[in-house]
Amino acid sequence: MTPWRYLWRLYRPGLPRWLLAWAALALTWMAGAALLALSGWFIAATALAGLGLLVGLNIFTPSTAIRGLALVKPVTRYIERIVGHSAVLRLLADLRVRVFATVAATPARLWAEGLGRERHADLVTRLLRDVDTLDGVPLRVVGPLLAALLTLLAAVVAMAHWGSFALAVVLGAGGGIIGITTLLFAGIGRRRGMERVASRTALRIGHHDHFSGLAERLAYGKADQGLVQLDALARDDLQRAQSQEQWALWAEHAVQALVGLWLVAVVALGWGTLDAASLALVALMTLGLGEAFAGLPGAWWRVGEAEASAHRVMALESRAMADAERFHPEAARHRLAPRSWVIEGLRARHQPHEATPWSAILMPGAPWVLHGPSGCGKSSLLATLAGELPPHAGRVLVDGVDWLALPDAQRYPHVAYLGQEDHLLDLSVRQFLRLGLGEVADAELHRVLQAVALDAVFERTGDGLDYRLGPRGSRVSGGQARRLQLAALLLRDPGLVLLDEPFRGLDAALMAHLLPRLQPWLEARCTVIVTHAPEALPATWRRQRWPRVGEG
Q1: 268: Cβ contacts below 8 Å, ≥ 6 apart
Q2: What's the structural domain count of the chain?
Q3: Left, alpha or beta for 545 (phi > 0: left; psi -120 to 50: alpha)?
Q4: pLDDT in tens, 387-440
Q5: Which of these, 258, 30, 272, lies nearest to 166 by C-alpha position?
Q6: DSSP E strands: which ranges in 168-257?
Q7: Contact 67, 35 (CB under 8 A)
Q8: CB within 8 Å of 338: residues ≥ 6 apart
């Protein structure tokens, strides 16, 4: 699929809004050109009438038309801004949900095997910066091009009516020359735009690498070396941005110069064939077209950025789709229906080498509660059981089969893994809970929200399931974010549940509400919970202190 076909499929659902925004932009530019032309004619005609060179001037009709055009222009501009930006925000929300849902529905280990070979920061760039670049194409590229074309056609028709056929031909030819000129500039601008996307990606990766490893760099005295590399990337990106802006500025000056030559040609052709007032009208109408054509260079050089970003997002989605073809949850459930996990001598990352490896049998009915000091590898153990990290030693057996050696498509549907960090997106509550699940009835969503004491919280906002969580969950508290993720787990039916500090930030009253509702669900599955507060959990659950150095 070509980038532009991909973009067409992306923008097509919002086409009615785009058409309205483009029409409003075209009317704005038409009204501007007409206002300038009619005002010039009226001033010239009034001056001639004052000198006695024009008899029977009707001042009421043109003055009314001028007032009308002066009103139409801001109204249509306002409509274009409101409708256009509303369409952009809808597109941005839909695109982000689409891309994030694609990523969320794909096993994390598949990303480690695929995009993980590239860089995590590159993936973040694709999810954020590239998506933001795509949302501006209809408003900054397609809209100005179509509106400029419609404005030129309207001016040619008006010129043929109030001027002459020859003047209309000159006006149309001048518009064509300017269009071809902007296309020539676009060829270079397109390439520069694609290079700019690459430089921005490199800079983001450089920032990520530098700050994620800053502690180690400082410890080994290599921080200055990282800063030098980061400065070089920043200078390269800045130079490309400046070069791109300079090129756009030259292109804009070239267009304005052509508009000036265009004006001279129209005046020269109309001199002696039109009266002074009509000549002022056609001259100023030509000059008024400069507003429509001035934005074309900037629109064209954004095409390269849009193409590059489309390529990157398409690659992201195509890789996720290829992985999804390997991932068939229902088929996997029929192939594998584990009821117990046998852990033999498992050793995870960050676990002290002197500590005894973990051996256990995980079965429904008796969740394991692991507790111990920070930094001894408890979280790494959960990630290893989930298949996110390879073990240093040992194995996990399911019906005699090595669980960690199974294909992701067989293992992934049977695991619910909640890490320490909260991962919320700028989605509605309904969209977040449904991620990776497809359609789920609202009644089910209300049920799990009630289980975690959140249903009434979102209902009080007036939005209910449509309440937006905000960027990175900024519109909910830390405790609410934790409970919302627990609610998302309740919608799934895994055999193995791995929870890392699942009740962090919750007070005693909330714990008293949650545990009776979660306990049957957790006990019906093989569950491992890592916590620093084991005393808050049911006393019937198994407890094991995660060993420190020298402990058995």
Answers
A1: none
A2: 2
A3: beta
A4: 888 888 888 888 778 888 887 777 777 888 888 777 787 888 888 888 877 788
A5: 272
A6: none
A7: no
A8: 398, 399, 403, 414, 495, 496
Q: Are 16 and 271 within 8 A, CB to CB? A: no
**CA separation for the pair 294, 182 (Å, rounded):** 10
Whether residues 224 and 293 share a domain: the answer is yes
Same domain (yes/no): 246, 392: no
> Nearest-CA neighbor of 395 among 359, 353, 428, 430?
359
Instruction: Sort 172 into a burial class: Cβ within 10 Å, 0-12 / 13-18 / 19+.
Output: middle
Please state, in angstroms and rounded to a whole number, the distance separating the CA atoms of residues 259 and 286: 8
Nearest to 105 by CA among 437, 444, 496, 406: 437
Nearest-angstrom CA–CA distance, 70 and 426: 40
Q: For residue 35, give the nearest of 4, 1, 64, 3 by alpha carbon.
A: 64
Q: Give strand pairing partners of 342.
A: 361, 397
The answer to whether residue 552 is domain-embedded is no
Q: Can you say how many angstroms the Cα of residue 205 is from the centroid of all Cα atoms in its chain?
A: 18
Could you tell me if 232 and 151 lie in one domain?
yes
> Which residue is associated with the tokens 């989930």?
386
Quick check: 31 and 69 in contact, CB under 8 A?
A: yes
Assess whether 203 and 351 both reside in one domain: no
Read off the CATH number of the domain in which 434 is found: 3.40.50.300
Q: Are both 321 and 336 inside the same structural domain? A: no
Rounded-to-integer distance, Cα 242 and Cα 247, Å: 8
Which of 325, 351, 373 represents a domain boundary (last residue)? 325
Whether residue 551 lies inside any domain: the answer is no
Residue 401 corresponds to which tokens in the numbers above?
């089969």
Residues 305 and 370 in one domain: no
**Domain span holding position 128:** 3-325
Cα pseudo-dihedral 99, 100, 105, 108, rounded to 10: 110
Which residue, among 264, 254, 344, has the nearest Cα to 300 in the 3D structure?
254
Q: Is residue 90 part of a domain?
A: yes
Helix (H) or strand (E) holding 370: strand 368-371
Choosing from 325, 351, 383, the residue where a domain stops is: 325
Q: Whole-angstrom Cα distance, residue 137 to residue 7?
A: 9
| Residue 320 sits in the same domain as residue 336 | no
pLDDT digits (tens, 9 = 90+) for 255-301: 888 888 888 888 888 887 888 888 888 888 888 888 788 777 766 66
Q: Does the model's pTM come out above 0.85?
A: no
321 plus 335 within the same structural domain:
no
